[in-house]
């Protein structure tokens, strides 16, 4: 029943570029794909994204973050992800539940048990089939991400997390690596400091192997 691929990593790890490249690669194989992102992916979830990421909302509480991102996800799962998987599509999503564990749990300090419980209650155990984790030093990712936001004029509208401290982002990075250690069969860790081409090659190898395992002709 479809294939659910998620890309994760700290700010500026290059996952969005890699999603575009993977999208082209899979479309070239005439496979049915849907590319989406979190928070976002549906009209309501994109509205929540604006509140979630805008720098003006600096005083947002960690628990409010958890509730906002969960609300966006419930809408996204129900209206886009599950229907697409049900239609046997390959869903490629920029971030999903692990981002909440890494950012709101490891980063903001919300107890992990509460986050896992909310995922169990509201998302009915939907899990990615494969999660590609793009790992790089925080300084490298943050400087890429801050300069991209500046170039695209998104410093205010999407800059709330880029304003957080290096220590916060170190915790997020450590959280992702912990999650990958807990579920090595689901995660593939990619060194995000390699060239774009080398990373793309590694992504294609991992995704091709998963597609074969799931019975797709690749
Ligand atoms: P991105 O689209 O550039 O990845 O930005 C999304 C931001 O939202 C990023 O800073 C991580 C943050 N985020 C969370 O804090 N929790 C979540 O559950 C998700 C999906 C994203």
Key words describing this protein structure:
single chain, 218 residues, alpha/beta, Rossmann fold, 8 helices, 56% helix, globular, binds thymidine-5'-phosphate
Write up this protein:
The protein is of the alpha/beta class and 218 residues long. It has a single domain (3-213), classed as 3-Layer(aba) Sandwich (Rossmann fold), CATH 3.40.50. The protein is 56% helix and 13% strand. It contains 8 helices and 5 strands; from the N terminus they run βαβααβααβααβα. The chain has a 5-stranded parallel sheet with strand order 2-3-1-4-5, with helices on both faces. Thymidine-5'-phosphate (TMP) is lined by residues 11, 37-39, 53, 69, 94-95, 99-100, 103-104, 161.
In short:
This protein is an alpha/beta fold. It is built from 8 helices and 5 strands.
The ordered H/E elements are EHEHHEHHEHHEH
- The strands making up the biggest β-sheet line up spatially as 2-3-1-4-5
CATH arch. level architecture: 3-Layer(aba) Sandwich
Average residue-wise pLDDT: 96
- Per DSSP, what share of the residues sits in E-state strands of 2 or more residues? 5-15%
| Largest β sheet strand count, sense and barrel closure | 5 strands, parallel
* Small molecules bound in the structure, each named once: thymidine-5'-phosphate
**CATH level 1 name:** Alpha Beta
Question: Radius of gyration, Cα only, in angstroms?
Answer: 17 Å
CATH topology: Rossmann fold
Please give the count of helices.
8
> What is the 3D form?
globular
CATH superfamily: P-loop containing nucleotide triphosphate hydrolases
| Low-pLDDT segments, ≥5 res | none
Distance between the termini: 17 Å
């Amino acid at each position: 029943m479809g294939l659910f691929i998620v890309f994760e990593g700290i700010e500026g790890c290059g996952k969005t570029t890699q999603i575009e490249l993977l999208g082209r690669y899979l479309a070239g194989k005439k496979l049915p794909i849907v590319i989406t992102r979190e928070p976002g992916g549906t009209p309501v979830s994109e509205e929540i994204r604006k509140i979630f990421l805008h720098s003006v909302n600096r005083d947002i509480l960690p628990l409010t973050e958890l509730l906002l991102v969960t609300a966006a996800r419930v809408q996204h799962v129900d209206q886009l992800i599950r229907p697409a998987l049900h239609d046997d599509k390959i869903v490629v999503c920029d971030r999903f539940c692990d981002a909440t564990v890494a950012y709101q749990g490891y980063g903001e300090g919300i107890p992990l048990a509460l986050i896992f419980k909310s995922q169990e209650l509201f998302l009915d155990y939907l899990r990615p089939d494969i999660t590609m984790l793009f790992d790089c030093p925080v300084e490298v990712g943050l400087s890429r991400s801050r300069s991209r936001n500046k170039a695209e004029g998104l410093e205010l509208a999407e800059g709330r997390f880029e304003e957080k401290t290096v220590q916060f982002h170190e915790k997020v990075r450590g959280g992702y690596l912990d999650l990958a250690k807990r579920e090595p069969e689901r995660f593939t860790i990619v060194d995000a400091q390699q060239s774009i081409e080398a990373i793309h090659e590694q992504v294609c190898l991992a995704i091709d192997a998963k597609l074969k395992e799931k019975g797709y002709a690749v």
